[in-house]
């Protein structure tokens, strides 16, 4: 245990579905990998397989990145019924099983090379299948779930979590509220860890432009349709304001049609996907989020870091955790476009309120700064060693 | 040695295995920095040896503290352990209790994160034999979320209930600073210690985690004295700190958590113990707890405690019986000034039980068995029945019989009692059961339940025989004389007390021939081939059930049945998902019949077909015949939606009559639906796309419902609701002929002309998860007491719910929830009371007063969303409290004068197309034309 007492030199494995997918969890994994590495830990990022649609990662990475399979693996299944008798099927399943075993062996070898006191952080529930099969002697295994309890409850991952996570040393949700929900569901090895705010812009938004911004994929989950309904109530009252919608996605055509149908073409700008989020926020005075489901939304944190007050649907514990309703932003009951419109009217109609909330938002959101979150992780590592 | 994070102090009991389990649960924690301190008083050698073994196995983690001779009692032992603890936090366990595997890590994490002196989680205890565990019910509210409290009023259960008897840890320095130790003069010191710790702690963190399991089951009554003493001391401490509210709450909790379970236990306690407990309670209870603490309990509960305090063991037992069997009369009630008292000796008002309103045939009477002995081959039974309020008609007309009823069967034997003596408020009965009068078949007719039936004038009251174990005893077997062949399988009757404390007779095989036969039959019915056959039958039944499951039906329907050819002129009707024969589908059905149009009507019904028309084919919803009818129908007519999973065949025309105009947001306007994900919303959209015609009553419907369900204009039929034709006709009749005579329904329900009919029809509130009845927002009893003289209240629960109504004076309250057609009730009602139900839009057509009783208007409108402001456009006065409602109804004329104009405007606006000929117009539009070929 002498090695592990120096908190700066831990072997940390971060393990996600893919090594480099374009998506929130993978981005989070590389953010944390960078952070852990700059604080002296030895980091190794892992994925079940490499992704097709890739995240842009810095070159050189500075830490190893390994994919266990060359492509999305097929899970070996137990054959039932007459299929048991077909040699071809049996051969195929045996090959899948051997494939998996090879990956597990490779993983065990990596784990064995780590010094005692190392930590395996499994960011999603799927890779836990490999970790459970591998040899983790001397390591602490930490599972994670990057979505709200309600969202998991409604899909197949609920069963996976109930199957895989009772056996890990500890696992983490995004907020205390989600953790409480899981505890009430009978899981007692669960805690929580918020996401870290990656970047605090030097200068906050001046909040002078009469612009409301929305940033997110144009996907049903982000509820842009409800945002347009809400904006239809706001636009007539605030003729000089513009709604800027950043993002692209499969629903774009439908949403644009809806926008035209509501007669909002004059006040809505469709700006497509942006890589310069701080720039987009610098040109806005109010941020709006109308999602149907969220985990711990980075977009809200970024808006607050830029000093832009938010109006959002209170759709998940993560949202309530980030935005303190009435203090540094305004929340509306989920799905209630009328209420969201009301919040937007309040923020757009009152510059003093906007400024006060924007200043408080920028200050408050720093409780999720990288330093704070890193400290929380170190505390957790310490606790799990006791 | 490093300071451990936790010291777990375990007091050793007398069971070495239990102690080991406890210690190992602490040593096997996911948190390893734990020391275990075992404290014992050297009385039990086995335990001592096991403890030494544990120390040997974990020398640096387990210590044994031996108490000196003079230290006695659990409190002193615990204090010794606390003194010896080294850890930063301490937690106490009794032998046998176990820590949940992650308990200490969760406590430590919460303590570190929140800097709390005390962290508490849930605990469970064994609930009787079988290993099932349970926590107290109030724990759920206390530990719903992780939270930190500094003010005890925010988490009153911590001191008001016995929350802190287990499952919490204390920071040791805080404990030592406040010199927190157990009071060694108290037998139940842990109750007192937890409360003291809560009072001393600066910050308390509550976590939802389970911490301690396997606590010993509660045995109410063993130490009432000790509990009262501990509670009394806590009360003093709370009062000293000016926390009198918490003290009162604690006393109330003591009544419900300790005294009521104690009283319930009286049903099974033997006489001696009952008497002793009652005497104990009588001597001490009122000294510690003021009688006001139980004064506001419901009547049966209140009487349990009152009689306990009065020291009456039999009275408590009777009251406990009333708790276990609600609706049973257990005491000779006494009438006083229009109210009803429990008994002459205990004049406590129990009118709320409603016994005074029960007619003779609805009476359930307490019937205590006083004698049960076997004599000369017969069973001698005697008992006493409580007779309340002179309910019994003259004694001469009453026949008293003992009924023996085969459990799980239909067979009944009725034996007249030999003797029935009426003395005062009790009826004594006596009977010798002659086995010759019980010609049972034997073998398959094993258990017979008993009850006494009192018959007078063709009506019967029932009195189940309450039997205590000690009265029934063991030695009252008597020979049985089954019919011819039965004698080979049974020869003896054994009376016994059931788990529900009633007398039953069991037919047994005691002598050799019968025992042999039984053994043989048991062998034949249980040997391997029959077991296998049974298994096979089970598997086959499962397979058959799977073939009839919903998912198979949907697949077969959508793939095969929809392709069946159309049956011309066939219509499938459904109203409210088959729960009623009513609404617009009924009106259309009747119009079709009246015009003699040749159509083949099929009605779908949910559970029971009673009340559905004889002149139509009836099919149960979701049955194969239902699916067949739907697949072949030319028309579907319903008011809510045929099952969403079923596709509409290409040849079918779907008329959606809908079930009411909208006040609350519906369909895609509803928040719940808007937050659903795409597949869920697409499913609703597909279901709605099946509609070919949608009836609307006004422009309001077009703006709201049609938009909410995204219905194109060409599907809308602005013909009004056929169900409302009856209302328009009724209004015309009112205007020309007046309100009387009332519709024939009034006579059927027994409503006299001089009584005003008030219909209370609240809206749907969502199905409760536990399947229990909804609590009505209107206190029905209060209503009938205040207005019962001149009013009769008809209660109609929503068709998806059911209401549980109290017993009220006859002729003041009627439950009409089961009535099929609401519009008949509307025609009958003189005034409507509702909250947000669409019924108001229909009733307004009658131009009779409407009162909107909406105690939660703002909350409801905010949560559910609404299409207009009810206060602004309401067709009648909007009242928010019950008193206001009763005042309004008492003086309705005055209250309503200002509203007549608004109501007419309301009716005109929301029912613009309801002109009284809607059914005719709909039939003209759809059915009168010659049948056409495929429409889509």
UniProtKB/TrEMBL annotation, chain A:
Q: Which Pfam families match?
A: Glyco_trans_1_4 (PF13692)
Q: Which UniProt keywords apply?
A: Glycosyltransferase, Transferase
Protein name as it appears in the record: D-inositol 3-phosphate glycosyltransferase
Query: For the region Disordered, what residue ranges are annotated?
Result: 67-99
Basic and acidic residues biased stretches: 86-99
Q: Does the keyword Transferase apply?
A: yes
- Source organism's superkingdom? Bacteria
Phylogenetic lineage:
Bacteria, Bacillati, Actinomycetota, Actinomycetes, Kitasatosporales
Molecular function (GO) terms for this protein are: glycosyltransferase activity
Give TM segment ranges: none
UniProtKB/TrEMBL annotation, chain B:
The yes or no answer to whether the keyword Ribonucleoprotein is present is: no
User: Localized where?
Assistant: Cell membrane
Keyword entries, A-Z: Cell membrane, Membrane, Teichoic acid biosynthesis, Transferase
> Has the keyword Isomerase been applied to this entry?
no
Any one Pfam family match given in the protein's UniProt record, by short name: Glyphos_transf
Output the superkingdom of the source species.
Bacteria
* Topology in membrane: Peripheral membrane protein
Give the similarity note.
Belongs to the CDP-glycerol glycerophosphotransferase family.
Protein name according to UniProt: CDP-glycerol glycerophosphotransferase family protein
Q: What organism is recorded for this protein?
A: Streptomyces luteolus
């Amino acid at each position: 245990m002498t090695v592990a007492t120096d908190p700066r030199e831990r072997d940390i494995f971060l393990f996600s579905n893919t090594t480099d997918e374009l998506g929130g969890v993978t981005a989070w994994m590389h953010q944390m990998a960078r952070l852990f590495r700059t604080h002296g830990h030895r980091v190794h990022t892992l994925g079940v397989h490499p992704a097709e649609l890739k995240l842009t990662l810095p070159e050189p990475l500075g830490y190893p990145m390994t994919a266990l399979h060359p492509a999305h693996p097929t899970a070996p299944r137990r054959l039932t019924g007459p299929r048991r008798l077909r040699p071809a099927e049996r051969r195929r399943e045996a090959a899948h099983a051997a494939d998996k075993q090879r990956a597990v062996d490779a993983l065990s070898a990596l784990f064995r090379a780590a010094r005692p006191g190392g930590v395996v952080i499994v960011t999603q529930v799927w890779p836990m299948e490999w970790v459970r099969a591998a040899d983790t002697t001397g390591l602490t295994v930490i599972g994670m779930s990057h979505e709200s309890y309600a969202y998991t409850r409604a899909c197949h991952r609920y069963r996976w979590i109930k199957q895989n996570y009772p056996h890990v040393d500890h696992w983490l949700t995004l907020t205390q509220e989600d953790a409480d929900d899981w505890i009430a569901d009978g899981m007692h090895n669960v805690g929580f860890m918020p996401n870290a705010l990656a970047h605090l812009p030097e200068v906050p938004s001046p909040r002078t432009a009469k612009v409301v911004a929305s940033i997110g994929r144009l996907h049903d989950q982000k509820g842009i349709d409800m945002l347009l309904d809400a904006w239809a109530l706001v636009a007539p009252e605030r003729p000089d304001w513009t709604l800027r919608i950043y993002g692209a996605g499969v629903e774009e055509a439908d949403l644009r049609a809806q926008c035209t149908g509501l007669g909002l073409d004059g006040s809505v700008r469709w700006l497509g996907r942006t890589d310069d989020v701080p720039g987009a926020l610098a040109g806005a005075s109010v941020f709006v989020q109308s999602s149907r489901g969220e985990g711990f939304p980075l977009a809200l944190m970024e808006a607050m870091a830029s000093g832009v007050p938010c109006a959002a649907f209170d759709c998940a514990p993560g949202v309530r955790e980030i935005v303190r309703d009435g203090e540094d932003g305004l929340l509306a009951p989920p799905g209630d476009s009328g209420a969201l419109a009301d919040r937007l009217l309040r923020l757009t109609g009152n510059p003093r309120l906007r400024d006060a909330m924007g200043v408080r938002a920028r200050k408050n959101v720093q409780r999720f700064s990288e330093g704070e979150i890193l400290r929380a992780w170190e505390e957790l590592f310490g606790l799990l060693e006791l | 040695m490093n300071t451990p994070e936790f010291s777990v102090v375990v007091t050793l009991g007398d069971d070495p295995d239990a102690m080991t389990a406890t210690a190992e649960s602490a040593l096997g924690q996911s948190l390893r920095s734990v020391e275990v301190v075992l404290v014992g008083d050297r009385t039990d050698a086995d335990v001592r040896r096991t403890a030494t073994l544990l120390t040997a196995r974990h020398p640096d983690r387990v210590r044994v503290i031996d108490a000196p001779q003079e230290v006695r009692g659990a409190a002193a032992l615990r204090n010794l352990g606390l003194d010896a603890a080294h850890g930063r936090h301490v937690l106490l366990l009794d032998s046998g209790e176990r820590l949940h595997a992650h308990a200490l890590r969760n406590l430590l994490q919460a303590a570190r994160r929140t800097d709390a002196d005390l962290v508490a989680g849930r605990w469970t205890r064994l609930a009787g034999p079988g290993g099932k565990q349970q926590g107290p019910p109030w724990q759920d509210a206390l530990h719903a979320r992780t939270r930190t409290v500094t003010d005890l009023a925010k988490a009153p259960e911590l001191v008001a209930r016995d929350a802190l008897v287990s499952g919490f840890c204390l920071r040791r320095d805080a404990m030592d600073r406040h010199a927190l130790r157990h009071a060694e003069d108290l037998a139940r010191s842990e109750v007192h210690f937890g409360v003291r710790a809560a009072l001393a702690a600066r910050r308390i963190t509550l976590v939802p985690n389970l911490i301690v399991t396997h606590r010993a089951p509660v045995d109410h009554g063993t130490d009432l004295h000790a509990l009262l003493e501990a509670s009394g001391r806590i009360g003093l401490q709370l009062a000293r700190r000016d926390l009198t509210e918490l003290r009162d709450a604690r006393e109330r909790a003591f009544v419900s958590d300790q005294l009521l379970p104690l009283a319930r236990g009286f049903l099974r306690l033997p006489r001696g113990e009952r008497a002793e407990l009652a005497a104990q309670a009588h001597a001490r209870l009122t000294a510690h707890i003021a009688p006001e603490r139980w004064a506001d309990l419901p009547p049966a509960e209140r009487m349990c405690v009152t009689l306990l305090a009065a020291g009456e063991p039999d009275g408590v037992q009777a009251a406990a019986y009333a708790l276990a069997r609600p609706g049973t009369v257990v005491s000779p009630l006494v009438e006083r000034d229009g109210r009803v008292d429990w008994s002459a000796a205990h004049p406590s008002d129990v009118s709320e039980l409603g016994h005074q309103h029960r007619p003779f045939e609805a009476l359930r009477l307490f019937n205590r068995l006083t004698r049960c002995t076997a004599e000369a081959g017969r069973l001698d039974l005697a008992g006493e029945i409580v007779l309340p309020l002179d309910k019994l008609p003259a004694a001469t007309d009453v026949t008293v019989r003992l009924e023996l009823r085969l459990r799980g069967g239909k067979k009944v034997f009725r034996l007249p009692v030999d003797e029935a003596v009426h003395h005062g408020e009790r009826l004594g009965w006596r009977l010798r059961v002659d086995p010759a009068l019980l010609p049972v078949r034997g073998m398959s007719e094993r258990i017979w339940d008993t009850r006494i039936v009192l018959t007078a004038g063709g009506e019967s009251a029932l009195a189940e025989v309450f039997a205590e174990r000690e009265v029934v005893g063991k030695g009252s077997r008597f020979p049985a004389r089954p019919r011819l062949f039965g004698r080979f399988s049974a020869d003896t009757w054994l009376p016994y007390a059931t788990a529900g404390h009633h007398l039953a007779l069991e037919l047994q095989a005691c002598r050799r021939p019968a025992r042999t036969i039984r053994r043989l039959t048991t062998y034949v019915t249980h040997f391997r081939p029959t077991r296998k056959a049974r298994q096979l039958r089970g598997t086959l039944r499962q397979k058959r059930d799977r073939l009839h499951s919903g998912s198979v039906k949907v697949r077969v329907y959508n793939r095969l049945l929809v392709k069946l050819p159309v049956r011309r002129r066939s219509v499938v009707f459904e109203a409210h998902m088959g729960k009623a024969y009513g609404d617009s589908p009924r009106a259309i059905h009747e119009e079709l019949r009246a015009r003699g149009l040749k159509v083949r009507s099929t009605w779908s019904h949910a559970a029971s077909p009673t009340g559905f028309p004889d002149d139509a084919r009836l099919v149960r919803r979701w049955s194969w015949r239902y699916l067949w009818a739907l697949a072949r129908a030319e028309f579907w007519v319903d008011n809510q939606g045929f099952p969403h999973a079923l596709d509409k065949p290409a040849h079918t025309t779907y008329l959606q009559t809908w079930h009411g105009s909208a006040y609350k947001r519906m369909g895609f306007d509803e928040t719940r639906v808007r937050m659903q994900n795409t597949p869920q919303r697409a499913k609703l959209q597909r279901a709605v796309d099946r509609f070919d015609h949608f009836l609307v009553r006004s422009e309001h419907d077009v703006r709201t419902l049609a938009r909410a369900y995204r219905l194109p204009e060409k599907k809308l039929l602005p013909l009004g609701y056929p169900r409302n034709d009856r209302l328009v006709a009724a209004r015309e009749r009112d205007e020309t002929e007046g309100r009387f005579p009332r519709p024939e329904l009034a006579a059927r329900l027994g409503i006299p002309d001089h009584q005003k009919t008030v219909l209370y029809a609240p809206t749907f509130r969502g199905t409760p998860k536990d399947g229990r009845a909804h609590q009505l927002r209107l206190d029905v009893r209060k209503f009938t007491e205040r207005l019962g003289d001149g009013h009769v209240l008809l209660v109609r629960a929503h068709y998806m719910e059911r209401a549980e109504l109290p017993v009220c004076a006859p002729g003041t309250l009627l439950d009409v929830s089961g009535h099929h057609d609401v519009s008949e009730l509307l025609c009958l009602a003189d005034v409507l009371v509702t909250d947000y139900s669409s019924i108001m839009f229909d009733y307004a057509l009658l131009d009779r007063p409407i009162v909107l009783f909406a105690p939660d208007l703002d909350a409801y409108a905010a949560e559910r969303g609404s299409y207009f402001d009810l206060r602004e456009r309401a067709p009648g006065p909007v009242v928010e409290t019950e008193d206001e409602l009763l005042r309004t109804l008492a003086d309705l004329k005055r209250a309503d004068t200002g509203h007549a104009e608004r109501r007419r405007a309301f009716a005109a606006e929301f029912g613009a197309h309801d002109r009284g000929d809607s059914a005719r117009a709909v039939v003209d539009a759809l059915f009168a034309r010659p049948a056409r070929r495929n429409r889509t």
